[in-house]
Structure formats: C-alpha cells, structure tokens
C-alpha cells in the first residue's frame, strides 16, 4: 500500500494541506497577538490542528497525532472560553506550531529522532499548565414566557441545569386544562428518556387566589433532564401540546461541544444554515419552520441565525459554527468549480511548446513578408496575434501573488525582535503583486537576509530611538509594486542608517578598497554586499560572519535582477530589489550592430533617437537638455561587420536611471523566447540569455539592469575589486 502510486499521491496531498493549515495557524496566532482576531478565528485555529491530527492518523504518523492531540486540547479550552489568549500562551502555541511542522516533515521523510521526541515531550509538559480544566462558571439563561415577558431562572447551584443536563423551559397556555392536557403528565413522561434531576416551578404569573380560576394554568416549569436522547426525541414528548405551550429545549454544555464538533466535521453535506443545524441535532424541523415563519414577520428581513438566537432556540456559539461551516462549503464549492491543480512540470512543458510556437510564428511571418504576398502576410499577422494571446494567457498561469512569500515574515520579525530585545512592527503593502512562480520560490531567502540584516544592524534599541527623538517601536516596510515591466520589492526601515565611515574603514582593513580611495556614498553602501564583509564586533546567531548579504545579491542576480541600496544617516535604509516579471517569454525590441542581433526588453525601452554627430564630453549626449550616458553595443560586445554611418540610440530605463544604447539598425518589436546560455557562456557580462529569431539566427538578450548599474559605477571612481570583470568592459 505504501509503495503504491495512490498512496504517494495522497501523502503529497497531505503534505501540501498540512503546510497550508500550519501557515493558517501561524497567521491566526499573530493576529491574536495584535488583538485583531475574531471569534471565528478560535474555531478555525482548532480546526487546523484537528485536521492535521486526523489526517496524520490516517497515514499512521503516530508522533504527529500524539503531540497534536495535546495542542488540540488547549485550543479546545481556548475556543470554549475556559482560557484566554495571552502573550505567553501565544508564544507557546507558536512554538507548538513549529514543532508540528517539524514532526510532519520528519514523518514524511521517515525520520525518527529521539531529540525530536524529547522536544515534543518538553512542549507537552509546558502545555499542561493551560490544559487543566477549571470550574464551570455559573450563568443565567433568559427565558421567554407565554405572555412575552422575559424571565430569568438561575442555573447555578444544586440545580445543575445546563452543565450536563438538557434544560427544558415549559410555558403552558392557560386553557391547557380545558383542552384535556395535564402538564405534569408530560413532565413525568420525560423520565422515560432519562433522569429528571430538577424541576423548578415558575409562579410569577399566578394571580391572587381570589382572582384565580382553578380551571386555568398559570404555572411554568424549568426542567433539568439528564438524557442521551436527541433534541427531536425530547421535543416529541410534547407533540400533542405544542399548539398550547411555548417550549424551549436547551442542550447541555457537553452537547453543545458535540454539536460544534459535528458541524466542523466533513460529515455534513448541506450548505443551508437550517439544514446544518437540523443535521447536527441542535435544531428540530418544527423549530426551523417556526423560525422561518417568524422571519417573515420582520419588516427589515432579519437573518435566520439572528431569529434563532433571539428566540433562544439555538445558542449563538452553535449558530456561529454553522455559519462558518456554511461559508467554508460555499467557498470550497466556488473554488472547486473555478480552480484545478496542474503539476508544475506539465505547465513548464506547455510554456516550452508555446515558446516554440512563438518562434515558428515569427519565422512564418518573416517568410511571408519576404515573399511580398499580401494575403499570406495578413494570415501570418492574424496567426501571430493569436499566438501572442496564447503566450500571455499561458504565462499568466504561472503568475502568483508575491504575498505567498510575504506571509512568512510577520513571524520572522516577531521572533527576531524578541531575540534582539527590540520593538519592531512590520508593514506589508503590495502583497497582491504578481510574479512568476519560479521567482516567488527563489526570492524568499534574499528577502530573509535583508530583513534580518535591517533588524540586527539598522534598527536601534528602544532607548536609543527615544534618545534620538524617534518612537520606541521601529517600523520595517515590505513593499512590492510593478515598474517598467519589472517588479520592485523594497525592504525599508526607519533605523539609524548605514555608518559609511565605519563601512569604509572596515573595507580598507580587509583590502577591498585601497587606502585614500575616494568613493561615493552609494559605492560605500554597496560594500556591504562584498563576500565576507561585516561590521559586527561579535559573532551572533544573526550576524557577524560576513555571509548573507553577498548570498542575497547572488540569488537576486541569478534571477536577472538587481539590488540597490539607499541610506540616510539617522533616518533609515532602503534595500530595493528589481526583478523581471517572468523568466520564460517577453516582448522584445530587436536591434542590430554589424552582423550581430540583440534583444532589449521592450518594457524598458523609453524612446529611440538619432545618434548626435556632435556630442559633449566622451560617452555622454544631450537629450532634451540633460546629459545622458550611452554605451556602444558594438564596442561592448566586440561585434563584427561594417558600422552604419547613421546610428540610432535606444534609450532604456531601469531603477529610475536612463542610458542610451548605440546601435546600427532597429528592427522593432518581437516576441522573445528566452533561452539559457549554457554553462560555458552563463558568465558573459550584460547578457541575460539568448533567443532564436524568425530567420533562424541567434540574438543575445541584453541585461539592462546589469548594464545600467555598470554605467553608473563607471561614472564614478570605482573600488579596485568592483572595477574588474563586467564593468571593465565598459571602459
């Protein structure tokens, strides 16, 4: 069974489901710590743990079940109001959530560790403080009399009403005797269903004896019945007197918990509120019909749940659970009807085929254009347009919100700020900005390094912030937005900023910069990206070893992105990551130099102008009154072939900087399928890939981000290490 394909597929589904459930637990707990949780969150939190335990039991993951069961007990007391959220409890539950994730991963990899078991035992021992049952609190249950007046019957003390007994409130009509009905006979008959533990007579409507009619009934009764019967069975006792009495049947507390658990289970197929309550046993058909009739009498159209609670037919906590279940079923139904899961490998294969289709379409259009046949050219143009639409829709399948990555950082900020003893608040914006899924998976680690670096080095302690006139709580902003065909992710803090003097001194000490070298503020800031560079005096769990920032930079550059650093002393630092939206297919701008062809990402192209015959100083030209640097692609790549007399300049923009690319010919827009260069050419500077043109020729794709950064660095005095490699080609 365990070696079967079905089992492996089910186990993979459990792995994905448990990951989502544990992430939801973390999100709810973090909301609770900020005081933003709702009553529904308590039930959702319990359901997450309950589902992980139940699914883990199906696969025989005994250690997961053993530990999660104890966590579940605490969450059950939390949702029932026996205990309340507190900072120590939330911290403990977050540790338990981490442990559950670790246990699930270990179980899926078939790893058994005594240390892991001991860690579980330690956490379970700490959970005992919160899992001890407390005394049941006394409460008052409001009742509605036959005349409509509200009465109150105490359920505390020796009556035991509402603890483990059914509470039955009976208000008979005054003419019940004349109808031949005996109220006590019905009460006595209840004993056939269980044990009558208490009967309390309500005589608040009994008139003076001189005015009392002996043939009229003025008394009401409150009955405590201990029974395993269902609510429908208890209601059937009063079947022949239901038109001559007002009857309310309240379940015991233990029964209420059973109702809620049954509602939260997957056994109920209906999504109608009334049917859910009937199916779980907390509502009878007669009560539902009465509530629906009563609902029609309200001019403002009250909801059914409100009517049921106001008439004391169903407890509010049960109605809330049923409404949550109803909402979940509706969302699941909507999701199932609109979404399907596709393996990533199939999607990648589809994109590869679409890429080949794009190349073939471009080739056909080029041949039709060369042939000069109008009809054929028109058909090729229509086909190319359709292919472009298919391309956009296919790439859209891989686009996912970057919020999938952002969701992990509130927990990181919480834990690291506690470890550092700092007060830090994380503000997230733009989480719905979309990015290629493969890039979303890769951006997580670089962002982790940047955020931890800001917290450790950038943010001051609360006392230091007060001394400098800042609020004691620091803010780290995590922002995402689209710009010029790329996505920008910023990590911005309001801390002390980079100490450029200390950074430069450390760089000279390590030999990264020659003594006496003059560097710009931006160049000094970028020194923190050098391998092995750190200004920390001591090595800690967070910093001091000089690894992290350079790793982040390499990961970003591997995605054809760039990292820009802006810092102001005393006001904070902004780390700005720019990434292309996708790594597969882009709209390109086809240019030529000599006999070579190049593609510039179309979203980065601003305009095309004539290359001026008269220029200012070398490598600059005047563009509408501004000095704009330019790069001759022929000189940069050593292109062969005759140079055109009238050259063109393609002005490109990246990260709010503009440069000009001097080319010989402009062919215009084209669809570009990005092909990797392979291991022998992957380090070619200022090139992010290659593509096949419609003519069958190969064109290099310009890495505009790297090129712009190189031009900016080359404008200023550059440290000796930064002046080698890529940038040396620009000189």
Summary of the model, kept short:
The protein is of the alpha+beta class and 731 residues long.
Question: What does this protein structure show overall?
Answer:
This protein has 731 residues and is an alpha+beta fold. It folds into 5 domains: 5-131, Four Helix Bundle (Hemerythrin (Met), subunit A); 140-336, no CATH class; 344-397; 401-580, Histidine kinase-like ATPase, C-terminal domain (Heat Shock Protein 90, 2-Layer Sandwich); 585-730, Beta Barrel (OB fold (Dihydrolipoamide Acetyltransferase, E2P)), CATH 2.40.50.180. Helices cover 44% and strands 21% of the residues. It is built from 23 helices and 23 strands. The strands form 6 sheets. A 5-stranded mixed β-sheet has the order 8-10-11-13-12. A 5-stranded mixed β-sheet has the order 21-14-15-23-22. The chain has a 5-stranded mixed β-sheet with strand order 16-19-20-18-17. Helix 1 runs antiparallel to helix 2 (39-58) and helix 2 (39-58) packs antiparallel against helix 3 (62-79).
